[in-house]
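Case study 2.
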Amino acid sequence: MSDEKEQAAPHIETSPASPEIELGMGDAALPGAHKGGFQRLPTAPVNLPATDVGPSEDLPPLPDAEWVAPVRVRHGMSGWALGLAVMALGASFFVGWTFPLGLAAAIVSIVALRRPWDSRVVAGWALALSILSVLYSAGWLLWLAHQQHLVS
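Prediction:
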């Protein structure tokens, strides 16, 4: 048994690598190291394609196409006036001191009536309801003055 232990491993002959094989003699890459695959930082701006911003003087217009400007939607004051008038009328059913709210609704509705893009129907209803709320508040204030014997 001692003879078996003394026997060495068989010797294997190797030849040098052929020139077609690349030997990785460079440094080993650390985890997370840049490997040359990125062209920009992850947070850098993205290049966007050019968009059409309208007709240009450089190119002749197409025969059947024309540039249409986008329609701007304008939000009017008539809705605000109607909401304010409804709140003023609702509050004037219970107390008389809410007449400034009715006056504010009347002013906003008059401004809405003078603007061409506001709904005239909604602004008209707002003006009518605000006048009604001012009259109802005035009725409450007159009733209160009569109860306090300020008006005979």
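The longest helix spans residues 120-147.
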